[in-house]
Amino acid sequence: MKILNLYACLGGNRYKWGDEHEITAVELDPEAARLYQERFPNDTVIVADAHQYLLDHYKEFDFIWSSPPCPTHSRARFARRETTSAEYPDLKLYEEILFLENWFKGKYVVENVIPYYEPLIPALKRGRHLYWTNFNLPNDLNERKSSIMEGKDEVTQWCEFHDYNFRQYKGEQRVDKMARNLVDYEAGKTILDTAMGIIHKQNVNQTSIFDEL
Ligand SMILES: C[S@@+](CC[C@H](N)C(=O)[O-])C[C@H]1O[C@@H](n2cnc3c(N)ncnc32)[C@H](O)[C@@H]1O
């Protein structure tokens, strides 16, 4: 399958996707993109704005995963509203959902946190995340529980959890924030497997229709 992995970060969702797919990852932070490329040498990594890339290239893919930045939607940030700067929720999240739902012919997943407001478009809630998809997700994504204790060893705990040394990251974002960004790799795998099962089933149906002609 040709897969587009938008806002790829360090590839938490992608870690267990294997090497049988043709994967293009888009990430704006050059240091995160460099490390992603090191982690997944067979993927094509592009340093660009994922929002624009989606618009320009969506037709080239069978499956698209998008994880737009979550801070402006997050309940944790909203809880600190007395002490943090005010920000509009970034509605590019909803632009992408509407766009993919209506324009894209393949399967898609848009993933984000559970927001501090009622989501503008109904979503599937799994664990601590919301998913907008055009296929059904199993109730259980096999997501591992992260019992991370905030504190001085938080990054080390995330390194173990995601099987990745986040301390290699020397870019402009905070290392602990980067480490918190990643989707659990088991959930990422379950979601791709589910989409592939559906796509394969569609292909089988297609073939049998042709067989009958
Ligand atoms: C929530 S993380 C994605 C996590 C990823 N799905 C995973 O499982 O590892 C969001 C990422 O989007 C990147 N980012 C932010 N704005 C971007 C943009 N306009 N285009 C591409 N990447 C962007 C951030 O640098 C960050 O790495």
Descriptive keywords:
single chain, 213 residues, alpha/beta, seven-stranded mixed sheet, 7 helices, globular, binds S-adenosylmethionine
Strand order in the largest sheet: 3-2-1-4-5-7-6
Q: Ligands bound here?
A: S-adenosylmethionine
Which series of helices and strands comes N to C? EEHEHEHHEEEHHH
Class by helix and strand content?
Answer: alpha/beta
Which geometry do the CA atoms define? globular
Portion of residues in beta strands equals 15-25%
Radius of gyration: 18 Å
Chain-averaged pLDDT: 94
Number of strands: 7
- How much helix is in the residues? 25-40%
Return residue spans where pLDDT drops below 50 for at least 5 consecutive residues: none
* Biggest sheet statistics: 7 strands, mixed
**Given the structure, what is the number of helices?**
7
Separation, N- and C-terminal Cα atoms: 27 Å
Q: Care to give the gist of this entry?
A:
The protein has 213 residues and is an alpha/beta fold. It is 37% helix and 16% strand. The protein is built from seven helices and seven strands.
Molecular structure report:
Helix 5 runs parallel beside helix 6 (175-181). With 213 residues, the chain is an alpha/beta fold. The protein starts with a strand and ends with a helix. The chain has helices at 30-39, 50-57, 75-79, 92-103, 154-162, 175-181, 185-212, and strands at residues 2-6, 22-27, 44-47, 63-66, 107-113, 124-126, 129-133. Bound molecules: S-adenosylmethionine. S-adenosylmethionine (SAM) binds at residues 7, 9-13, 26-29, 32, 49-51, 67, 69-70, 181-183. The site of S-adenosylmethionine has 20 residues, from strand 2 and helix 2.
